Amino acid sequence: MSADDYLIFTPGDVDLAQSPLRGSIDAPTFVLGAFNPGLARLPNGNLLLMVRVAEALADPVDGDWVQTIRWTPEGHVLDRHRLAGVEMADPRTFALKGAGMRLYGLTSLSWLLPVEVTRDAREIVKVHYDKAIAPSASYQEYGVEDARISLVGGTWWMTTCGVSADRQCTAMYHSVNGIDYKPLGVVLDHQNKDMILFEGKPHGKYMALTRPLGDAYFAYPEDSPWLGGPAIHFAVSPDALHWRPLDTPGIRARKGTPVSARLGGGTQPILTPEGWLMLYHGVERREAVGVYRTFWALLDREDPSKPLRIEDSQPLIEANPALTAPLADRMYLPTPVVFTTGIADAGDHYIVVSGEADLACRVTHIPKERFR
């Protein structure tokens, strides 16, 4: 294992006795994954990982039924679906057969756990169970997922994905100290995922990456360099709560690259002398899940909707089987996955955090020269 590429937090580091689910369900659970951490620099100089904990039932199948966890105002409950009526090509979800449209259930419920680490991200300082963020509204009934944190104007803004039968949406949280977050509600509606605020206000406005999803996309002309499908878009806001998408296209999948299925935001865009630096994920079609890798782009300093450089031919970060080898008994994804979610300036290099194999939190130290 390289000293500059390592796992900092794994499922074994989570104390489920302190899980927010403990007060309302008696069924035994386990940590399917502790991964996809948002990243923030705290006022004391330490770093905060906002870790997604996917907590799953130890025995999801009960006779002829498959069970899933759902939040309600009265506590968490177990829902049951007939086993004969579902299919499970993806180990993270199951799909209902014969529904007319794709209807899914989750094999786990996610909540967020703040983990404070040293300023160089090499040691854990404290796991803040008392500040965990659990589902608290109907739009989060199946979980709170994939935090992204941006420091803008001296305060911290955190986006998360809320999952429910009504919608998959983006919810906003706000903090004045980087560790205590207040929920502000839904800011983007159905299936607009991977929303990430820029760390700064271009032209005095909040700006964010978005990634709307849909069931159908239109094809580009045959001679176009672009592939159709989910892509990264831009939006602006006067207050970080009300957002207007920009008209111009953002970052799209390009033919002849490893990104053949979709792409989406990864780290919060940060301002460098060369422009706004952002890392993003690209997915190659393979089996049900696909292969996830990390790429990067540089956006214009004055107009970030204009990409100056898109590095999508060779990945910046790929899944590293050596890192998860000690956790081989916990691996459940069939394809290599690394999902990058945060970046912090560390002087002559950047500290980059990712979810490795939807299982654990990975730290990679990357010299700044790599982006020049």
TrEMBL record:
Name the SUPFAM superfamilies for this protein. Arabinanase/levansucrase/invertase
Per the UniProt entry, the signal peptide is: none
Presence of keyword Glycosyltransferase: yes
Keywords of this entry: Glycosidase, Glycosyltransferase, Hydrolase, Transferase
Q: Which Pfam families match?
A: Glyco_hydro_130
- Give this protein's Gene Ontology molecular function annotations: hydrolase activity, acting on glycosyl bonds
Cited PANTHER family? GLYCOSIDASE (PTHR34106:SF5)
Q: Name the family the entry cites.
A: Belongs to the glycosyl hydrolase 130 family.
- Name of the protein in its database record: Glycosidase
Species whose genome carries this gene? Sphingomonas canadensis
